[in-house]
Amino acid sequence: MELNLDGKNAVVTGGTRGIGRAVSLELARAGCNVVACYRSNVEAAAQLEKDLAETPGKHSVIQADVAVPADVDRLVDECRTRLGSLDVLVHNAGSISHIPLAKLGIEQWRNVLDSNLTAMYLLVSRSLDLFSDQASVIGVGSKVALVGVPLRGHYTAAKAGMIGLTRSLCKELGPKGIRVNLVAPGIIDTDQAAGLSPEMRERYRSMTSVGRLGEPDDIAGAVVFLASDMSRFITGETINVDGGM
């Protein structure tokens, strides 16, 4: 068994910033042809497109909001046109907000559920005829799903729902050779963590066994492992990548 992904076709949602950017680049370095999508940050998309161009393979960066069914259909059609088939689907896109329950409106609830959980359903269901034999679906969940955090009831519910969806899909799609897994990050040092105070950063560091915050490449490594044949007997699992938090 090898980690080599030469010639495999991959799509990464939320693929131009933070964890998604690291995943897109690591898959490309491992040999994949990568289609990365983004919602709105044109500068990040342009930078990733430039960086992917320096990596062997056929790569594309496409605008799509995966919370919108029509955009998911367009993204899948682009993958069909540009790649022909899919060996790896990484659903990393998602939104988060911090709102107390008393002020959590239905629109905010739906936005977070749709971009995280519903988007995974849409992406997998729309891609069924594109998946190759032994395809790998990888969702990016969160350690918070089994812990819970105040002000993030909608986000926690969405990520917990991804665990259940992963378990069901692994059983339904397994006979077709398709594996479905989740990677659940802890606190990762991305632009979202940039606003943490020094005190909060130290608190989070002290909560991990390894004494540091995670880095996007830590998550990318787990994703590439799950995309490869080295994990060919792993499905339905949630792998916590949290430094022993």
* Helix and strand element order: EHEHEHEHEHEHHE
Largest sheet: 7 strands, parallel
Strand content: 15-25%
* Corresponding CATH superfamily: NAD(P)-binding Rossmann-like Domain
Percent in helix:
40-55%
Count of alpha/pi helices: 7
CATH topology: Rossmann fold
What does the radius of gyration come to? 17 Å
Question: Could you say which structural class the secondary elements and strand pairing correspond to?
Answer: alpha/beta
Secondary structure tally: strands: 7
CATH hierarchy, class: Alpha Beta
Strand order of the largest sheet: 3-2-1-4-5-6-7
User: Could you list the spans in which at least 5 consecutive residues all have pLDDT below 50?
Assistant: none
Q: What is the number of domains? A: 1
Distance between the termini: 30 Å
Quote the average pLDDT: 95
Pfam family, one: adh_short_C2
Family: Belongs to the short-chain dehydrogenases/reductases (SDR) family.
Domain Ketoreductase: 8-190
Protein name: SDR family NAD(P)-dependent oxidoreductase
Describe the structure.
With 245 residues, this protein is of the alpha/beta class. It has a single domain (9-241), classed as Rossmann fold, CATH 3.40.50. The protein contains seven helices and seven strands, in the order βαβαβαβαβαβααβ. It has a seven-stranded parallel beta sheet with strand order 3-2-1-4-5-6-7, with helices on both faces. Strand 2 (33-38), helix 2 (42-53) and strand 3 form a beta-alpha-beta unit. Helix 1 (18-29) packs across helix 7 (216-227) and helix 4 runs parallel beside helix 5. It is globular and about 45 Å long. The mean pLDDT is 95. InterPro entries: KR_dom (IPR057326), NAD(P)-bd_dom_sf (IPR036291), Sc_DH/Rdtase_CS (IPR020904), SDR_fam (IPR002347). This is SDR family NAD(P)-dependent oxidoreductase. Residues 8-190 form the Ketoreductase domain. Belongs to the short-chain dehydrogenases/reductases (SDR) family.
